[in-house]
Automatic annotation (TrEMBL):
<dbReference type="GO" id="GO:0009423">
    <property type="term" value="P:chorismate biosynthetic process"/>
</dbReference>
<dbReference type="InterPro" id="IPR030960">
    <property type="entry name" value="DHQS/DOIS_N"/>
</dbReference>
<keyword id="KW-0170">Cobalt</keyword>
<dbReference type="GO" id="GO:0000166">
    <property type="term" value="F:nucleotide binding"/>
</dbReference>
<keyword id="KW-0547">Nucleotide-binding</keyword>
<keyword id="KW-0520">NAD</keyword>
<feature type="domain" description="3-dehydroquinate synthase C-terminal">
    <location>
        <begin position="176"/>
        <end position="317"/>
    </location>
</feature>
<dbReference type="InterPro" id="IPR050071">
    <property type="entry name" value="Dehydroquinate_synthase"/>
</dbReference>
<dbReference type="GO" id="GO:0003856">
    <property type="term" value="F:3-dehydroquinate synthase activity"/>
</dbReference>
<keyword id="KW-0479">Metal-binding</keyword>
<dbReference type="GO" id="GO:0046872">
    <property type="term" value="F:metal ion binding"/>
</dbReference>
<dbReference type="Pfam" id="PF01761">
    <property type="entry name" value="DHQ_synthase"/>
</dbReference>
<dbReference type="Pfam" id="PF24621">
    <property type="entry name" value="DHQS_C"/>
</dbReference>
<dbReference type="GO" id="GO:0009073">
    <property type="term" value="P:aromatic amino acid family biosynthetic process"/>
</dbReference>
<keyword id="KW-0456">Lyase</keyword>
<protein>
    <recommendedName>
        <fullName>3-dehydroquinate synthase</fullName>
        <ecNumber>4.2.3.4</ecNumber>
    </recommendedName>
</protein>
<comment type="function">
    <text>Catalyzes the conversion of 3-deoxy-D-arabino-heptulosonate 7-phosphate (DAHP) to dehydroquinate (DHQ).</text>
</comment>
Amino acid sequence: MQSITSSSYAVHFNQRAYDALNTHLSEKTYSKIFILVDENTHTHCLPNFLAQVRGDYDFEIIEIESGEENKNIETCTGVWNALSELDGDRKSLVINLGGGVLTDLGGFVASTFKRGIDFINVPTTLLSMVDASVGGKTGVDLGPLKNQIGVINQPQMVLIITSFLQTLEERQLRSGFAEMLKHGLIQNKAYWEALKKVQDFIHIDDLIYDSVVIKNEVVLQDPTEQNLRKILNYGHTLGHAIESYFLESKTHKTLLHGEAIGIGMILEAYLSKELLGLPEEELKDIKSTFLSYYDKVVFSKENITTILSLLKFDKKNSHGNINFVLLSAIGTPEIDITIPDELYEGAFAYYADH
């Protein structure tokens, strides 16, 4: 597969990714090279990754705990301290080998250590390959509130090595697939139709490539999310609130990102029908497709009230308004839509209804 050029870097795939990395390392004179991993990628991905590196480099491995609950400033502090203790300086490189939590956090750590050092992202989950691989968003959560702290800063390159997908559980693969479905809904109905036929989430290199192209084209037109890039947040306004609620809950099982935004996309499709005239058959198609991939979640009235209270923390909000991305049709998004409060109950009722 050809490399995809973004604003200041390229996304490379499979063997081309390793070739690009080896060329980059041979041309640069990094004082130190750090590889940030979690316990899963340390075991399942790092040995294969290092086996493909040509040259004699003294890598320092820094391990953090996996999971959204560890995507916080406390974890960053631990990594910053490790970089300092291991003599990291402004000529050091950080390679982030992991999923979206790790690449978001690792990119933020690198962007702020010594006021910014080089980093390379090697996404190892389907979610991070199609979502975190493009756009330069880095950051961490503030308590249960998603991505409240961070900066937009571009890596030196992104390396997508699809064989790492074989290390993932089915649930993780399905989570990443939700972002691919979103790309179809916001940009390309034909792509949406192609995705609906997918049952094997590992051997989908061409579809992963298509998703990266879709996201890259949006980001190139609006790198700092002033207008168009907001369409990438379809399903995420309610989805992030749901994800945050379940992350903090003591009585509910935590939802993965894709599971939460899948619910968000159904809810926001209902709002799209009510406010923008999304055709009824497309609404039904969206609901049935997501429910064919993701288990339905039961929400009590108390759950819904708490979830709606979290909407005020959404990053797209401005001037006191909660701004949504909705669809007038599959492939046709509209941004900065405000929702009358009375519609939320109907959206959750539609999701719950068989």
